[in-house]
Amino acid sequence: MYKVGDETEGYCQRCRLNTYQAIAATDGRTIFTATCRTCRNTVTWKPEVSAEEVRAKQMKKLGKLQRDRPRLSSPPEVISKRPQRGGDLAGPLRELSKLTGKPMGLPPETDAPPPAIVGTPVAVDERLARWQALTAKLSSRDGKPYQVTRTYKAGDVVLHKANGLGVVTSVVNEGACLVLFREAETVLQMGVSPLSLER
Fold first, then answer.
1. Between 159 and which of 10, 24, 143, 179 could a Cys-Cys bridge form, CB atoms 3.0 to 4.6 Å apart?
2. More confidently predicted of 94 and 119
């Protein structure tokens, strides 16, 4: 006989594991629902599943994901299609070019370098070069998530939600530091008291 609140073992569909559960609904002979002690969710009760069955389900799901995933290792297919007769799309442009005397096609290819983009500040290139030099041997594992309550010193590596990986280049004052990111060099707050954040 089962009673509500009794502890039993069963398979939790949320955890996908065999867990201890508290009976939530029963008629005395059959368990209808149970609350998982691990994830605290009330689920339809299912008896325990053997480890081999769980592994077989996981392998089946993994195999399906492998089959459905596009094959990135194979080179992209090149579709070549010969133009049909009379399908010369450049013909009308050539005729118009003859009538107007103006070239209508693309400029001929030259070995000259592409024109420089006007207005690119040199400071951006210098900042990016500095960031690349400082982070050449770093990864996201080397940094700590940025928090205003922490204090930083020059050389510390931080992870910012918006700016990504950054390196503290200098301490401005007790409450601010200068951090170099890939896209910008900004002043961030530091050493803020947790009590002031609660207000």
1. 143
2. 94
